User: What shape does this take?
Amino acid sequence: MKSMWQSGMGVLALIGSGSALADYAYNLQAPASQVAHDVFQLHNLIMLVCLGIFVVVFGAMFYSLIKHRKSAGHQAAHFHENTTVEVIWTVIPFVILMGMAYPAAKVVIDMKDTSNPDLTIKITGYQWKWGYDYLNDDIRFYSTLATPREQIEGKAAKGEHYLLEVDEPMVVPVGKRVRLLITANDVLHAWWVPALGAKQDAIPGFIRDSWFKADKIGTYRGQCVELCGKDHGFMPIVVEVVSEADYQAWVAKKKGAAQAAAADNAKAFAVADLVTRGEKVYQANCAACHQANGMGLPGTFPAINGSKVATGPIADHIQVVLNGRPGTAMAAFGGQLSDADIAAVVTYQRNAWDNKMGDLAQPADIAAARGGATEAAAPAAQ
Amino acid sequence: MSDAAHAHDDHGHHAHPTGIMRWLTTTNHKDIGTLYLWFALIMLFAAGSMALLIRAELFQPGLQVTNPDFFNQLTTMHGLIMIFGVIMPAFSGFANWQVPLMLGAPDMAFPRMNNWAFWVLPVAGLLLMSSFLLPGGAVAGGWTMYPPLFIQGGISYDLTILAVHIMGLSSIMGSINIITTILNMRAPGLTLMKMPLFCWTWLITAYLLIATMPVLAGAVTMLLTDRNFGTHFFNAAGGGDPVMFQHIFWFFAHPEVYILILPAFGIVSQVIPTFARKPLFGYASMVYATASIAILSFIVWAHHMFTVGMPVAAQLFFMFSTMLIAVPTGVKVFNWVATMWKGSLSFETPMLFAIAFVCLFTIGGFSGLVLAIAPVDIQLHDTYYVVAHFHYVLVSGALFSIFAGIYYWMPKWTGHMYDETLGKWHFWLSVIGMNIVFFPMHFLGLAGMPRRIPDYALQFTEFNQIATVGAFIFGFSQLIFLVVVLKAIKGGAKAGDRVWEGAEGLEWTVPSPAPYHTFETAPVVK
Assistant: This one.
């Protein structure tokens, strides 16, 4: 198999000869896990077989095109069937396919075996970000695109990892079997990191699993690969593979940060503080649809500036943010944002642009609204 | 063609309307064939312009030409229109013109239904295109219409569902007509196994359409009720399953893939023997291979869904069944090459397109084989590799076969030879442009570029720029095609009855242009 792999690379390099530029990649990304490695080999094997068949069949065709031309005076023969030949060229491809099916089936079985994980991470796709839940370590965070808007709009030079950088990467230890439980909150998404050989659709209401074991320390990048609406192209995935010690340090740091965030929920804030914090929350969670200027996109996403919700009773406003609007793209943020963040974003929306309501929501109001919502829903459930 | 119509008016039992009413009320298979072909050509330019906008946006990283929402509208509409508005109507146009001529039949079996099958199509086209002007813009959820994203959209999504229903209706009516015509109206002596292969491929395609269009209708109706009437077929919160839609959709859409390619096999199987001056090699095995492909197409659908997380057994089943399709497809390619082998080959424009078809369709077949291997597919699913694959099959496959067929039969239809020099220019610019667009997409997909994204990471820049340059070459060279067609309609060298030296079949026994009514007395085939 090793020599097959090497000759495969040789042939592919030959195809790509004439351009040794580093920017041109002609094959799958360098594998960083066993599964990705197996897929890489499988692809090379099939490419070699296809190339062989192509050369034989089209060698014959082009020979014919040159030798059997009317302009070269060639007279047409009149044969139009030959059972022996037809049987042969039905059977030979069948045999070749069997030769391909066997190694492929082995990889399929290996890919689907998600047993005995060292670490389990639940991944949730949102429009348009990823949520990570470390089930063993009780860590939870969201990962959004870190590329500034100016770079996308061409107002600033594009960075090295343009569109493939996030604020909070997923961090895993090297050499450990990581089981991924993948689902979605709103529409279909798909989680893919090419170098790790893991791709799985994220399906709302269902959990599917996948796994990888990274061979090497490093940063691996991928993207959402199932059309999920407007910002489908803007929800990348970054996986940092680190040593076990670095991983433990990261876990401790994340736990500390979680405690600090929880403390915020118990505080009361001034309007100005909430507006400042709310603007950041708004940019990260709301601006993709409702736009930075609060005007939305007419016909698709409603405006918040001057809307009935943001200038009406604050309790109703909080309910919309907490529970979303079922059947539309408006997500329920109750499960995604802390009480302090929801209080901040609601206050921001009510005081930004032309919405000069002057009122505010405190984290305690959000906690109360959450409780109220649960009580209100409970009798209906019975 | 209108001259021919007037010359033969005296055959009619009542006066023919003229002007627009002639076309609105026509029940003549040649008129209806012409309408289908013009409709397809107009839609080709519409959906092609969308493709050029897409490629312009992707010329460099960043957002320059479109915004992400409009970009998704463009990719969705490009796909829907190219499939339902270009390739399918074009093949229906060929069927209308050629099936009666090839069978020695005076017309299609149900001429009035034939009229209706065509005239509902522009309505569907208008519904689709007008949705660009509605609030929220056109449908942007991908031509595959996957829920729950498709449930989120605005009014244009409902219009699209309606348009799909209408186009399905048109296809079913067309198919009933084609099946009935082929089974009942063949000239005496023209047994099924003597029938031109084009008729065979369309017969099988028509059965595929009748079997699968109702499935699509069911799927989009469920979307409609999920969207508007509170059902939860595809909503997990209400006990439904979004993946169920994909199973139903691909149970339609994989046979649909063959609906888009089997008539192409038919056209190429008419063109190659003519210019090889040698009968088609392995006629019987061509028929059996076509039928095998059609039957297999019903048991491979979930290879479009390897990443939804199916159990091992299902992945293996769909991988093996998909690989099996390579066998009958291979037989077809070998037969075409064997037909050329030891022929007396000449290279007029139809033959050039047919040879490019065999070569480039096979590249699409090879990338299809790569994608059939489930583990490799999981890496490449929803990347540009898939975009490259299906454009090799549909552009250099279906579309090139349509060009081959038009050049091949245009002298019969218009009575004039087309401009061979311009035809060759059209061929060479198309084949070069097409490869510059789509070949680099294989590399983009392998390197990890997802499809359906308006903006991309910097390492994908070079190949995207090459592809965009190719797209503009390919797109603008289609204007040459328009010129060739218009020139041939207006005038040009007079075409004889048997336009091509090596052409065989009943259509070459009638004058060029084919009179308004042909085979009023059935010919006898020995």
Remarks:
- Confidence is low (pLDDT under 50) at residues 1-12 of chain B.
- Chain B has 18 helices and no strands.
